[in-house]
Design brief:
Helix content: 40-55%
Mean pLDDT: 84
CATH class: Alpha Beta
Number of domains: 1
Strand content: 5-15%
Number of helices: 7
Distance between the termini: 13 Å
Radius of gyration: 19 Å
Low-confidence stretches: 6-13, 195-205
Number of strands: 5
CATH architecture: Alpha-Beta Complex
Structural class: alpha/beta
Order of helices and strands: EEHHEHEHEHHH
Length: 205
Amino acid sequence: MSYFNGGSQGFVMMPPDRISRFAQPWLRYICIAGVSAASDADELRHHGVTHVYTLMSANDPDLVRLLRRLAIPQRFTRVDDEERVDIIAVARRLYPQMERDRRSRPDACILVHCRAGWSRSASTLLYHLMRSWRMPLRHAWRMPLRHAWRLLKEARPVADPNNGFRAQLHRWDQQQQEMRYLCGLEAAYRLDQRGYTKPRYEASL
């Protein structure tokens, strides 16, 4: 089952880009945009951006100069918006640094952007949401893709990962659900061995 709605990478007339924020208070530390919004000093100041993660084929010299002038650290990662790119590996590599930046200051605001703010940055944020946050479910496991996708689309309606990135996110989500089920079975077995009543575990979220 696909949680992604609408076509991918279609041509859409867009107003000038702006930094997109999540409405949820627990996600106010992270935001997403395209390079035009990331290069807007007023936008950066307005949202209190403290760190910028750039995911593009090549860095933008104007953006580099602006961020140096504003004393905002930039983490550049060369990533092409192509289906063959292993976006999960990219997001996994960035995750520890993003967590360190998030905890580095109480007012941290991390901006993740690519060229348009549709595909590379959106995929990276989806991975980050799924890995970072635990849902208030009975077994408190990682956020499923369907929930992460809904949150991202509410914040950034134009988010539109390419088909290859979508497939990779689906596979990673499925692996996490399978792991959750297996861990649940193991926990049930251990409880049973200790004399507790074995709880019922479900395979799906």
